TrEMBL record:
The keyword Zinc-finger does not apply. Residues 28-47 bind DNA. Residues 5-65 form the HTH tetR-type domain. It comes from Pedobacter petrophilus. It comes from the Bacteria. One of its GO terms (molecular function) is DNA binding. Pfam families: TetR_C_13 (PF16925), TetR_N (PF00440). PROSITE patterns: HTH_TETR_2. This is TetR family transcriptional regulator. Keywords: DNA-binding, Transcription, Transcription regulation. Gene3D superfamilies: Tetracycline Repressor, domain 2 (1.10.357.10).
Amino acid sequence: MSKAEKTRGFIIEKTAPIFNRKGYAGTSLNDITDATGLTKGSIYGNFANKDEVALAAFDYNVQSVEMKIISEMNNQHTAKGKLLAYVIAYQGLIAGKISPGGCPVLNTSIDADDTHPALREKALNALLSWKNRMTGLVQDGIANNEIASRYHPEQIALTIIAMIEGGIMISRLTNSHETRELLLESSTAYINNLST
């Protein structure tokens, strides 16, 4: 890696949690310089503007979550187990063990809905990719007779995503361990009942 690539990587790594917690509008150039210890000139010597930093930070945050999900999925050998791996991984997100500030897709889709079309597009693409992967897992589960054939794979994927993202929102608002456990139990029961 060149020095410039290392510096860009450093800036992204240090600012990604800030963008995820504070959002695009809430993150200032001073936040970026404080987090990195670099001058404004150094930031703009590596990125054209704050938009470019925010887009790279979103990619970094999504990749961090995806790596955790893949790690959880590698421990599973069934389609339902792999669907449950999403629930387990996102429980880590709620607890702040993966990406400080919660789910980058949820945060960014709300933050950039009307204010930043490029970030909104990235959030949409991440959501569609997530839905497609989960739809594929449901299709595998149906093919392997783990999941009943009467279920519509895309509907199941969207329902699980909605349960996860809604659970994150409720858990963050209530800040209650009991609420997190109830939501985990509901999501787990929903997936386990797909075979009946």
